[in-house]
Amino acid sequence: MNIEKNIAIWAKGSTVLMVEQNKLPFSYEIYESKTYKQTAIAIKTMITRGAGSIGAAAAFAMMQAIIEAPDNNFQEYINNAKKEIEATRPTARDLFAATERVYNASKISIQNAIDEAFLVTKEISDSCKNIGILGNTLLKNDARILTHCNAGWLALVEHGSALAPIYEAHKHKKNIFVYVNETRPRSQGARLTAWELNQANVKHAIIADNAAAWYMLQNKIDIVITGADRIAANGDTANKIGTLEKAIVAKEFEIPFYIAAPSSTFDFSIKTGNQIIIEERNPEEVLYQKGLDQNGDIKTIRVASEGSTALNPAFDVTPYKYITGFITEKGILKPEELMVLTQT
Amino acid sequence: MNIEKNIAIWAKGSTVLMVEQNKLPFSYEIYESKTYKQTAIAIKTMITRGAGSIGAAAAFAMMQAIIEAPDNNFQEYINNAKKEIEATRPTARDLFAATERVYNASKISIQNAIDEAFLVTKEISDSCKNIGILGNTLLKNDARILTHCNAGWLALVEHGSALAPIYEAHKHKKNIFVYVNETRPRSQGARLTAWELNQANVKHAIIADNAAAWYMLQNKIDIVITGADRIAANGDTANKIGTLEKAIVAKEFEIPFYIAAPSSTFDFSIKTGNQIIIEERNPEEVLYQKGLDQNGDIKTIRVASEGSTALNPAFDVTPYKYITGFITEKGILKPEELMVLTQT
Questions:
Q1: Is the Cβ of A291 closer than 8 Å to some Cβ of chain B?
Q2: Residues contacting residue B74 through CB under 8 Å, at least 6 positions apart
Q3: CB contacts, 8 Å: A309 with chain B
């Protein structure tokens, strides 16, 4: 695989380019989207995924709609586009923050909206860089870190959120080891986080999601860091299904549990996690698995009993009481300190 | 599939017959083993699996060795066989209990050993029937039950342990619903428990192992019941990896957490779970998945990133403090009441 730069999504003119994450880790391809509709589909089908990358994709999709919109139907076209983009992934806060900003910028001029889309993306990337620098202060030499899902550069345009401190620690030659939760049903841990860490030569091993508590009980995990999809004003955090379970067991064993996220992931318009809509995805994600066969071809197989169905909530909400702190670009904050982020 | 009887393992003369559980749920086949070595391999490769079925297989394997043993080398042959059988699955208490009993019975006569092997198997089956009757008293109408791995009739010769109360409740026309943890890495929940429940027309859905806490937080789970592989005198319980995590989150949400197991699974020779040896299995069980392709052929695919490895503990130990009670054939017991089982 020839990876020129560790960037998940970018734009050239009105064309959006993104790493085709459904094909990773088996092949590295760049998906080109020419229209807002194509970009919306790319978000929905998870060609691009992860809080920040969804935010950037939504910003660029909104930008594409604004560029495409006919003069005689401008407002209706971009209003419809905004709704369509926002319907793709209901849980992701960054998505709504991004469409809103680019949409509002278009009230001044089309060029202003284009600039705003690029700025949204740059801000996510810059924030993550800072999250890495700040989060690294939490990682001692010989730290053993557990992470869930993928909150690396694939998920956040560049650098990552949960993985940013890990990359920073590795850059500073700290000896670290990462336990990578497989993260069923879509296995973003085994497929994407493991792939990223392998590329970066960070020591790691994949574990079944079931194994985390067992390693904690044996004192083999020092800290847990995950990303987030939406964080309420009180710190309740929506993230990949399973995050709640890891947070509860971490608390039981008094292991610090951190959420790493740029401030764009915080939604101060909602007081608690009860107001977060949880996306229910297709049961087939649980019942079938995709992977490489012996010939190197990508195959989909049924891994569950034929007569049975599945329930597939994509996210859960972790109440703030299980969260030690939030690693943001503006500082490492306790749940009760989050209001700092509303101050400019 | 033509399933004549819901029995996982039995013997005719010196031939052991078992449901080929590696092929389920995709095909139902009976595996015939003619020698103790074949039966030992069947245990090791998980053709038969689950605490009680391993116990029965071990009893029959010991019996086969005793029948096969040449007169001029009887004692050495059966001593070696015992070691070989016991090395197949180090965590399973029933295995050691079974080989010990049949081995000791051979001191009287070969026929006595044969009778003992059949008795071991019958006792597991009878115990499980009782576990069903007793456990059913814990299940209210409209109960929503979470189970982990497979502790059904496949795992325990007949009836099951964790599933026995569910079958009994269903027989009594209670309206129940079972959340079936997929149970990665070998997916015994999605493959075997779902298959059993579907056969029996019990309402259920498979969930990713990550989703259990989320359903608990939403008050959608009333009780958790799992099986066990070995239980120490104080109630610490070795069971499928992930059991510990489910027990901790159940306690957090004050949901009763029960272990269902026949008394053969209790090991009063060890005081606590610290003395239980945990089997570490091949990383490939995490990195690869087996299932049915579109043509109905069984295929194995790699589901994880190529450059990465995995850690694969097969079991974990749940400290007794997380366990509400034990559903045994002799009663439903709290951890501090387990010594009752040592009285005849």
A1: yes
A2: none
A3: 205-206
Instruction: Report CA-CA distances (Å) from B191 to A300, A342, B38, B201, B266.
Output: 16, 49, 24, 15, 27
Owner of token pair 């990773």: A24
Q: Does residue B246 belong to any structural domain of this protein?
A: yes
Q: Chain B: nearest CA to A221, how far in angstroms?
A: 14
Residues B304 and B267 in one domain: yes
Q: Render pLDDT for B51-66 as a digit per residue (tens, 0 to 9).
A: 999 999 999 999 999 9
- CB distance from A182 to chain B under 8 Å? yes
Contact assignment for A209 to B242 by CB distance below 8 Å:
yes
Classify B32 in phi/psi space as left (phi over 0), alpha (psi -120 to 50) or beta. beta
ipTM rounded to 2 decimals: 0.94
If you average pLDDT over residues A279-287, what whole number do you get? 96
The DSSP code for A88 is S
Query: Would you call A194 and B316 a contact, using CB atoms and an 8 Å cutoff?
Result: no
Tell me: do A98 and A217 sit in the same domain: no
Statement to judge: residues A238 and A328 lie in one domain: yes
Contact criterion met (CB < 8 Å) for A313 and B206: no
| Helix residue ranges, H only, chain A | 36-44, 51-68, 74-86, 93-105, 110-136, 164-171, 188, 194-199, 212-217, 243-252, 284-287
Pair (B258, B160) in one structural domain: yes
Q: Could you tell me the pLDDT band of residue A2, with boundaries at 50, 70 and 90?
A: low
Concatenating the DSSP letter of every residue in B309-327 gives -EE-B-EEEE-GGG--EEE
Residue with tokens 């039995």: B10
Count residue pairs from A and B with Cβ separation < 8 A. Answer: 232
Query: Is B291 within 8 Å of A312 when comparing Cβ atoms?
Result: no
- List the single best residue of B198, B257, B301, B315 to mutate versus A (max A Cβ within 10 A): B301
Contact A248, B279 (CB under 8 A): no
What's the mean pLDDT in A207-226? 98
B178 shares a domain with B86: no
Say how far apart CA A59 and CA A76 lie, in whole Å.
18
- Containing B213, the helix (H) or strand (E) segment is helix B212-217
Looking at residues B275-301, what average pLDDT do you find? 95
